[in-house]
Amino acid sequence: MIDVLAAEGHFVDHLAPVWLALPEEQRGAFHYIGRGHDRDLPGWRRDLPKPSESKHTLVASAGDLIRARHLRRPTAIMEHGCGQSFGGDPKSATHSSYAGGRNRDAQLFLHPGPHPAGRDRRAYPAARVEVVGCAKLDTLPRKKRGRTPVVAIGFHWDCRVCRETRSAHMEFGRMLNQLTDRMEVIGTGHPRIIDKLASSYRLHGIEVVKPWEEVCRRADVYINDASSTLFEFASTGRPVVVMNPPWYRRNINHGLRFWDAATVGVQVTPQGSLVEAVHEALEECPPQIAAREAALDLVYDRRPGAAQRAADVLVDWCATTS
User: Fold this and answer.
1) Tally of structural domains, the chain
2) Could you give the angle at the alpha carbon of 9 between the alpha carbons of 60 and 240, nearest 5°?
3) 43 & 157 share domain
4) 88, 254 in Cβ contact below 8 A?
5) What is the mean pLDDT of residues 275-292?
6) Based on the domain organization, do 291 and 311 belong to the same domain?
7) Could you give the dihedral angle defined by the CA atoms of residues 100, 104, 110 and 114, in that order, rounded to the nearest 10 degrees?
8) Which segments of 35-96 does DSSP mark as H helices, in order?
9) Mean of pLDDT over the chain
10) Domain extent at residue 219
11) Bond prior to 212 in cis (omega within 30° of 0)
12) pLDDT, tens digit, for every residue of 88-127?
C-alpha cells in the first residue's frame, strides 16, 4: 500500500494523476501539508503520515523525501517538473533538489525522460530508476485558436542555486507594456513568485491567472523563462516563446532547457522584441513545429499515458520491496 506526501500544491498537480491511476487497494492516504490547495481525492488528508513498516511512500520533491525519512519505509520520488538539473556547473551539479544531486536516498526514482534518469542512475546505482513520462501532461487542457490570440506570460521563481535558476522577471518585467499595448495578455508564474508577479502584472493591466489549467484553457501562446511549464504548454501543441536574460550562460550546458531543448520555442533576449517573438511563434512554421517536437522528445521520453505507467511501476515496486 502506498501513501503520498506533498508539502506544496504544484507537487499535488503531478502526483494526483498517478494516485488516481493506482488500483484502489494500493492507495493508502494522500497527505497534503501545504496551503491553498484542495483536491477531491480518495484518501485526502491534512497531516503527516505515521511511521509504518507495512506501507510505501511516494513524494515529488527533495524536501518531502527528507520529511519521509522518519517513516522507516521504502520511499519513491517522482520528478515534479521536466527533470531539469544544473550539472554544467560544479557548484550546482550535486544540489539535492535536482536529479543526480546528493542526499536523495530513495529506493525508486520516476522520471519524465532519459536525461534526469541517467543522472540519478549514476548517482544511485543501487536504486531502481524508471522513465515513465510526465503524468501531469495527461490532464492539461487543449485550446482551439480563436480570432484574437491570447498571450500568457510567466516566470520562474528567483532561485539562487545558480545563474540559470534565477527568474528573468528582473529583465523582462519592464518590457510587459510591449505586449499589453497590442495584445490580450494574461499573467501567471511559479507558485513561489506569483504573489510578487501579481503586483507587477496589475500595474500593466494584466489579468492574473494562477491555476495552470486555466492558463492552458485560455492561452494561444506562452512566454516563459525556465519553468517546466514551458515544456508542458508546448506539449499541448501550441507555440512558446523562450526568454533568455543576460545571466543565462551560453557557455554552460546543463542539458534540457540549457540548451539542448531550448529550441522548443522562439527565443528572445532583452535586446529583442517580445511582440515580434510572439508573432513569429504564432506563425507556426513547419521548421519551428519540428524543432518543438524534437525538443519535447528530449524532455519526455514518452508522453500520453504517463500516469498509468507510473502507477504500474509503483505497484510492481510495492510487490518486490518491503
Assistant:
1) 2
2) 85
3) no
4) yes
5) 97
6) no
7) 0
8) 62-67
9) 95
10) 142-299
11) no
12) 999 999 999 999 999 999 999 999 999 999 999 999 999 9
d(Cα 201, Cα 216) in Å, to the nearest integer?
A: 18
- Sheet with strand 240-243: strands edge to edge: 207-208, 184-187, 150-153, 221-224, 240-243, 266-268
Looking at residue 170, its pLDDT comes to 95
Angstrom distances, CA of residue 79 to CA of 10, 50, 155, 207, 287: 11, 23, 20, 30, 30
Q: Which residues pair with 186 in a beta bridge?
A: 152, 207
User: CA nearest 220: which of 206, 233, 230?
Assistant: 233
Give the CA distances from residue 104 to residues 8, 32, 100, 127, 142, in Å, rounded to whole numbers and listed in that order.
18, 21, 8, 10, 35
| 294 and 306 assigned to the same domain | no
Query: C-alpha cell of 102?
Result: 546528493
Cell of 311: 502507477
pLDDT band at 35 (very low <50, low <70, confident <90, very high): confident
CA distances from 90 to 161, 163, 165, 237, 258 (A): 11, 13, 14, 35, 15
pLDDT at position 310 over 80: yes
Secondary structure class of 75 (helix, strand, coil): strand
Question: What is the arithmetic mean of pLDDT over 123-147?
Answer: 92
CA dist., res. 82 & res. 122, Å (int): 19
Query: Which residue, chain included where needed, has cell 494523476?
Result: 17
The CATH number for 272's domain is 3.40.50.2000
Q: Model pTM? A: 0.96
- Residue 108's beta-bridge partner residues? 76, 128
Tell me the one-letter amino acid at 78: M
